[in-house]
Amino acid sequence: MLKRQHLPVAATIALFILMFMTGSFRYTGFFSAQVLFNLLIDNAFLLIVAIGMTFVIVSGGIDLSVGSMVALTTMLSAGLLQQGGWPAWAVIPFVLAVGALFGAAMGALIHYFKIQPFIVTLAGMFLARGLCYLISINTITIDNGFYTDMAQTKIRFGDYFVSPSVIIALVVLVLAIYIAHYTRFGRTTYAIGGSEQSALLMGLPVARTKIMVYMFSGFCSALGGVVFTFYMLSGYGLHAVGLELDAIAATVIGGTLLTGGVGYVFGTFAGVMIYGVIQTLIVFQGTLSSWWTRIIIGILLFAFIVLQRLFTMRSDRKTGSVEKMA
Amino acid sequence: MTGDTKGRYATGKPTSWLNRTYKHHLFWPMALWMALLLFNLFYSPSFFKVVVREGHLYGSLIDILNFGAPLMLVAIGMTTVIATRGIDLSVGSVVAIAGALACQMISKGSDQNAVSLVIYAVVMALVLSIALGLWNGLLVSITGIQPIIATLILMVAGRGIAQLITDGQIITVSSTPYQYIGAGSLAGLPFSIFLVAIVFAISALLTRRTALGLYIESVGCNPEASRLAGIRAKTVMIIVYMFCGLCAGVAGLILSGNVASADGNNAGLWIELDAILAVVIGGTSLTGGRFYLTGTIVGALMIQTLTTTIYSVGVKPEVTLVVKAVVVMAVCLIQSEPFRKAIISRWKTRRYPAEREVTRHA
C-alpha cells in the first residue's frame, strides 16, 4: 500500500501525469514520446543540479552556489579548451574536481566554523560568478570536436531520440537513488537532516558526511555545468542565472522538506519534469509569455509548501508533545 | 551572542575601556568600514573630496550615500525581519514590482509631470508593496512555514509579476516629479538620503522608544514563550514583514526613479543578498533576537563603499563579486565563535589533554 511518507512524491507524479494529459488533450502533437524525451533533453542539467541540491536540503542545509558553479564550469571548460588548448578528456575531470573541491571547501566552512549554509554558499555564489569574469567577460564559443559531437549525437530509440546528456542525467539519477537509500552515507545524511545533535550523539560521522554532502552538490553542479556546456556550446559568466532557485523549487515540488530529513531523489526527478512540462505547455499555448513560467512555478511552490505543512502539522500532533518538550 | 554575555557578566571583573569598545556591537562593522576608508585615504586622496557645483554636492562620499540609499532602506526592513528569526528573500522582487507598477501608472497618464498622478502612483506602489509584505507575513505567522521558504515563493513569482505588469517591456517615463525621488537633490544632498533618514528615524524611534523593539526581540528569541507571555507574536511578525515590504517598495521607487525606467527583470537584482549581508555585517545574528539598526546602516555603507572603492581602484567592475565574496567570508569568519577560538587557542597552552577533546566536539 501507499505509505504516508510517499504521499508528497505521489502527488507530484500525479500532477505531472495530469499536466501531461491536459497538454495532450488540448494541443495536437503534444502526446508523443518525443515531447517527453525533449523534456529530458532540455532539462538534463537542471536534473543533475537538483539531485545534488536534494542531498543538501535533506541534510538540512541549502546550496545557493549551484547556478554560479554551472556558469563557472562552462567558463572554465571554454577557457581551457579554446585558450588553453587542453584536450576534452583532461578538461572534464578537471572541472569536476574543481566543483567537488569548491563544494567541500564550503562544507568545511559550514561545519567547522558554524557559519550558516545560507551565508557560506551565498559567498560561494559571488565567488564563482566573479571567477567567471576573471576568465573572460565575453562569451567564449566552443568548437572542440568532442563537445560538438556530444551536442549533436542522437541516441535513437526507433523513431525517437535522446541526447547523451540525458543518459548522463539518468545514470546520475539511478546512482543518487542508490546512494540515498542503500548506503551508509545516504542514511547519515537523512539522520543529520532529522537532527544533527542526535546524529552526533549516535556517533555518526557528522563532519565527514556534511562536508561530503556539499562536495556531492558541488560535483553535481559541475557535472550539470559540463552537460550545460554540451547544450550551449559556449562559456559565459551569465549562463544559468537563477538556476539555484529553479533547483530549489524543483526539489521542494518533488516533496523534499526544506527543514531537512525528509525527501526523495525520485521526487526531485518528478519536480524537474513538472518544470519542463510547464515550459512546454507555455510554448504550445503560444499566446502566453515566458514570465508565466515563473508565476506558475511560484503558485505550485505555494501549493506544495502548504500541502507539506499540513502533513507535518498532522504528524506533529500524532507524535504528541515530545517535540514541544524539547 | 552568548559569548558577549559571558564576557560581560560571567567574569565578574570590571571591564576596561578598551575591552568595552571591543565588545561593542558596532566595533567590528565600524572597524571594517574605517579600514576601507583608510585604504581610500592613502590610495586615492580625491576620494574624500566633496565639491559644490550648481548648489549640489558632488564626490565619491555623496555617491556612496546616493547609490547606497536603496540598499540601506532594504537592509533596515530586513533587520527587523531577521530580528524575529525570519528572513525575507522576496525584497528584490518587491523592488522590481514597486518600480514596475509606479512607472506603468505614470506612463499611462495623460500628463506625466502632474504631481497628483505621481503621488497617486507612488501611493499605489507602496500599498502594493505593503500588501506583498502582508502576504509574506501571513504565510510565516499563520501557516507557520519557515520564512526562507515562505518568501522564496514571492521571490520566484515576483519577477514574473513585475514583468506581467510591464508586459515584458522596459518602461521609461519622463516625469520630473517621479525622477526627483531617485535623482533629485534637497539642500545640496541627494533626496534619497532624506528618505533613508526618515525611515531610519521612524524605525529607530518605534523600536527603541516604544515596547515594539522589545516585542520583536522577544519574538525572535522564542515565539512560543512570548506568546505565552502575552505578546501577540503573530501580529508582530506580520508587522515586520509589512514594514520590510514597505522599505523594499520605497527602495524600488528610488531605483526606478533614478534611471526613470522600470525593468522587471533586473531592477533590484541580488539586493536581497546584499541586504542580508549588510545586516550580518552590522552584527545582527541570523538566529534572531538582538538587532542593531545602526550596525545595519554601517554594514550597508560598507558594502557600498567597497563597490565604489573597487571602481575607483580601477579593478574591472566584474571582479566586484570576487572581492565581495572574500569580504563576506572574512566578516563571517571574524564573527564566528569557533573560528575566533581556533585562532586564540594557538597562543594559549593547553592545560590538559582532555580539553582538546572537549573543544573538538563542542
From TrEMBL, chain A:
UniProt keyword Transmembrane, yes or no: yes
GO molecular function, one term: transmembrane transporter activity
Superkingdom as given in the UniProt entry: Bacteria
UniProt entry keywords in alphabetical sequence: Cell membrane, Membrane, Sugar transport, Transmembrane, Transmembrane helix, Transport
Membrane topology designation: Multi-pass membrane protein
Residues passing through the membrane, by range: 36-57, 64-82, 88-110, 117-140, 160-180, 211-232, 291-311
InterPro entries xref list: ABC_transp_permease (IPR001851)
NCBIfam families: PRK11618.1
Protein name per the record: Simple sugar transport system permease protein
Automatic annotation (TrEMBL), chain B:
The keyword Cell membrane is annotated on this UniProt entry: yes
Keywords: Cell membrane, Membrane, Sugar transport, Transmembrane, Transmembrane helix, Transport
GO molecular function terms listed in the Swiss-Prot or TrEMBL record: transmembrane transporter activity
Top-level lineage group: Bacteria
The keyword Transport appears for this protein: yes
Any one GO cellular component localisation term in the record: plasma membrane
Main location: membrane
Listed name of the protein: Simple sugar transport system permease protein
TM region(s), chain numbering: 26-44, 64-82, 89-107, 113-135, 147-166, 178-206, 236-255, 267-284, 291-313
Classification via Pfam families: BPD_transp_2 (PF02653)
Subcellular location: Cell membrane
InterPro entries cross-referenced by the UniProt entry: ABC_transp_permease (IPR001851)
Membrane topology of this protein: Multi-pass membrane protein
